[in-house]
Each structure stands twice: as C-alpha cells, then as structure tokens.
Amino acid sequence: TCYFKFNSEHKIKILTKNKMYDSCNNVTIGLPEMTQEIEHLISKYPNVFTEHIGEALNLEIKLELIDKEPVNIRPYYLSPPALSKVKNIIDQWLKEDIIEPSTSIYGSPAFLTKSDRLVINYTELNKKLKKMCYPIGDLQNLYQHLRGGNYFTIIDLNKAFLQCGISKESRELTAFTTIFGKYQMKRIPFGLQVGSSVLSAYLDKIFHDIKFKYLVNFCDDIVIYSPDKNTHLAHIKEVIKRLSDNKLTINPKKMKCFCQEISFLGHVIKNNTVTIDPERTVNIRNFPIPKSIREVKRYIGMCGYWSKYIPNYADICNPIHALKRKGVKFKWTNECQEAMEKLKQAISNPPILQLADFSKPFTLKTDASKFGAAGVLLQPNEDNDLLPIAFYSKKFTPAELKYSIYEKEALSAILCIEKWHEFLEVQPFKLITDNQALSYVLNTKRKLGRLSRWVERLLNLPFTIEHCKGSDNTVADALSRLYGENEENDEPENNLNFCNNDEESKSP
Fold first, then answer.
1. Does residue 311 register a pLDDT over 50?
2. Alpha-carbon span 185 to 266, nearest angstrom
3. Confidence band (pLDDT; 50, 70, 90) for 326?
4. Residue ranges of the Reverse transcriptase domain (predicted)?
C-alpha cells in the first residue's frame, strides 16, 4: 500500500509499509497539473520506482577469454573508515544477491571512490577478455533527435550494470579480493569492459521500435520527448511498462517528468536549441595552470568535447597543442596562458545552436586561406534567418599548405561536407563560398589526381554553389584566416595549378 505526499516544488514522496520502497522519493514534475497522473503511474508500478536494484529479464552474459592465464592480485590497502564502507556495501550486495562468496583462482582488487562507490580494478582481466563490439550511440549528435520535443522526461536506471546478469560459468572470472574475503559477481560490475555494450544491446532490444521516435538513450540515461503533454504522458506510460515487463528499476530521485528544459549529456536542450550546460564545465573553468604534458593533454581533451561551440577552436588551442610536439621542452608561456583564458571564456559564454530540422534544407558556408579551412552549418528559422547548427575549423597540414588556392577551397568544402555528411546527405543543400574558383574546379574538364577524386566525391552529393563575397562570409572567412593573419596574401586566382605532384597526401 502506497500513499503520496506533495510539497511546494511538486515533488512526490512515496511512503509505504514495504521497506523496499522507503527511500523512493523526489520524482520531480515540471507540470503541476500532471502530478495526479504520475501518482497513479507510481502506484501502478512500485516495482519500477524503487532504489532496489532490479534484475534484467532473460539476460545473462557469458564472458569469453582470449588468454586463460589467471589474474590474481592481492587486495589494496584501505583506511579503516573506507573499510567500514566497503564492508557495508558487500553486506548489501550479498543481501540483494548481487555477489556470492568465491574460491576462484582469479582475483581483482577492489577500492572505494570519492563518491563511496565500490569499484573493482579489472584492468588486467579486461586485457584477457574477448571484446564485445556494439554501438552505444554518437555522443556528439545524439541530442539532435530531440528536435520537436516540447516536453521531456529523464530516466536513470538504478546502478544499471548491476541489473545485468552474468552466467554461472563466467562468474569466477569476476572474483574480487578484499581483506574480508573473496567474492564473485552475479551481475555485471562497473569497470568490466563489456558492460556498456551489454546494457546498450539489451535496451535496444526493449525499445527498438520507439527509439528515435520518442525515446533516446546513452547507456542508462534515457530521455522521452513529445510534442504535447497528453502524448508525453502516453509515451511515459509505455516506457515504464516496458521497464516493468523486463524487471528493470529506475532511480526516482533522478527522474524528472514533463520538463520543458533539460540537461542531457552535458547539453541544455530547450525550444529546439542546444547549448553547453554550465554545470558540466566547472572543471574546465577552474582548471589550474598545467604543470606537465599529461595535464596539458587532459585539459585539451576536456575542451575538445565542446569544440563545436567554439568557432576558432583550432587556432586558440595552437600554442597549447605545440607543447605536445615531439622534442619540444615543456614551458608554459604567456601565449599558452592567453590561449587557456580564451578557451575558458569561450566555454563560459557559448553560442546557442539550433537543433537540426531534417525536413528543411541546410546551408553550408566554407572558406579557405593559405593556412586554414573553416565552415559553419546553418539552417533558416521561422523568419528565414540563417542560424548556426555547428562550427568547424582546421589548420592545414604542411602538405596541404602547398596546394593552390583552388585546391584549398575544394579541400575546405570536402572537410566540412565530411564533417557533417549525416546532415547534408539527406536532401539538396546550398554551398556558399567566397571564391568562384571552386565553381571553376567543379566544372572544368581537366581534373587530375586528388582534384579528380575530390570532385567525384562532391558531385555525388545534391548541392548548388552560391558565390559570396568575403566581406559577407564573415564567420567562415574569419575562421580560415586565423591561422595566417600576418602572412602575405593568397596566391592570385589566375594561377591555376592542376598538376599533381608525386608527394603522397593524407588529405581526403
């Protein structure tokens, strides 16, 4: 028996005599008028809305070895406070039938994270396991499917990997060691390399006919999206029913229903637009001055995820990237510090990008200078104003710097088209460039070597070319010329060079 208590923030708290559901609370609802509907849904599926870890129906993964030499590593040293927490977790896992005592010849060490999560170091075991190859989603573009959604619901599975079973014959491989004894997993633990693939494949099986219609997920992060609230309620009910049918449970504390703005995979989605969630970039903004190449790589890696929001990303990073070159002695210069501050500023004040509408044509603006290529992907809004979907810029390689301006214009177009091919292959698009030489290259009968290959790839796509003066092509032009602002002018347009030299190029 359940009853509900509501507070001023329209959060549901479930109170029940069954201790299994005592901690089930704080389901956030964006629309107060839908509270009663969610109340009914929770009362109908109390087995789903619980912090109890579920057990996926008909899912037992078999682990296959490529190297049968056992892994057996002694336990890590843990402080007394950490040991106490580890003991509590082990006792809970035994109670929930997630682990069992083991005498396996295998043994990987366990440790406690800062968030008090028990993690097993399966680094050595993972090297000996046959990999499971299954796509888990394109992290950068997954949110593009959310266009048209006016209402969103976010669902997070309870310790999702631990809801996936392991076959009896494979369990001994997962044995882990502690000073309390040795145990082996009956469910997939965090840290086992097959976890993401197993979970993604299972969820795809459950949601195969509704995925990308009104549901997207990245592993256990699930988003339901709908155009209106009544349709959204029906979608939520269907998803919860399928989770119940497959004995999966969700974390009520992380569930948010009927939201008109959400944060998904670090992006804020609202009104068919996307931008950076500021909460996900705190570490970048507060990152200290790097003291080593390792820290430089970490910082660049963190910033690279957001590069589509930074029009001049490649140029800004150039002084920092230079530190990674072979043979370069590490020295944090004023140029590096200036680049770091620019990156922080750009990520702190990102542009708002449009979610792509695949029923409308795209416009691609590209440009090239001697030193770089750049482009911006755009689409018209209701007022027919072209608004950005993403930015791209790239510094030419030493081999590419030798190309004629006509080849560079073609290369810039190729790079941008391949960057956004999933957008541009759908229907005819407009390619806008500030150099009429590209039109000449596409129409001339004399094409040799790489130029011929490039043109062949361009002609396979449905697009028209529109000439744009450099003064009007401000974004793409500025991005391309960032790499050589103080250099001499580009070679004259009448110096057409179709000769293909013998030097191999790694360009497209």
1. yes
2. 31
3. confident
4. 47-269
Q: Cβ of 237: how many Cβ atoms within 10 Å?
A: 15
- CA Rg, the chain, in Å? 27
With residue 430 as reference, give the H or E element that holds it: strand 429-433
- Mark out the alpha helices in 16-157 (DSSP H runs): 35-44, 80-95, 123-128
Q: How many CA atoms lie within 13 A of 373 on its CB side?
A: 22
SS3 helix, strand, coil % of the chain, rounded to 5?
Answer: 35, 25, 40
Q: What does the block give as tokens for 498?
A: 């179709």
CB 377 within 8 A of CB 420: yes
pLDDT above 70: residue 489? no
d(CA 144, CA 110): 39
Which 8-state DSSP code applies to residue 94?
Answer: H
Q: What is the pLDDT of residues 54-79, one digit of tens each?
A: 999 999 999 999 999 999 999 998 89
Q: Strand 11-16 relative to strand 25-29: parallel, antiparallel, unpaired?
A: antiparallel
Residue in the structure block whose two tokens are 């209106």: 228
Sequence-distant (≥ 6) Cβ neighbours of residue 148 within 8 angstroms: 225, 227, 272
Q: Residues 370-391: pLDDT tens digits?
A: 778 888 999 998 888 999 999 9
pLDDT of 500 above 50? no
Instruction: Provide the CA 191 distance to its chain's centre, in angstroms.
Output: 19
Q: Name the 3-class secondary structure at 28.
A: strand
- Which single residue is written with the structure tokens 């590490």? 330
CA separation for the pair 133, 168 (Å, rounded): 22
Tokens of 254: 């992380």
What are 192-246's pLDDT values in tens digits? 999 999 999 999 999 999 999 999 999 999 999 999 999 999 999 999 999 999 9
Distance CA 377, CA 392 (A): 8
Length of the chain measured in residues: 508
CA-nearest of 106, 111, 112, 99 to 125 is 106
CA–CA dist 32, 252 (Å, integer): 17
Q: In order of start, what are the domains of the chain with their CATH numbers?
A: 21-268 (3.30.70.270), 279-348 (3.30.70.270), 354-481 (3.10.20.370)
Cα gap 78→65, rounded to integer Å: 30
- Give the integer Cα–Cα distance in Å for 453 and 455: 6
Q: What is the pTM of this model?
A: 0.80
**Across the chain, how many H-helices and E-strands are there?**
14, 23
Supply 118's token pair. Answer: 């028990």
Inter-CA distances, 180 with 87, 100, 114, Å: 8, 13, 21
pLDDT band per the 50, 70, 90 thresholds, residue 327: confident
> Which of 234, 236, 216, 214 has the alpha carbon at shortest distance from 226?
214
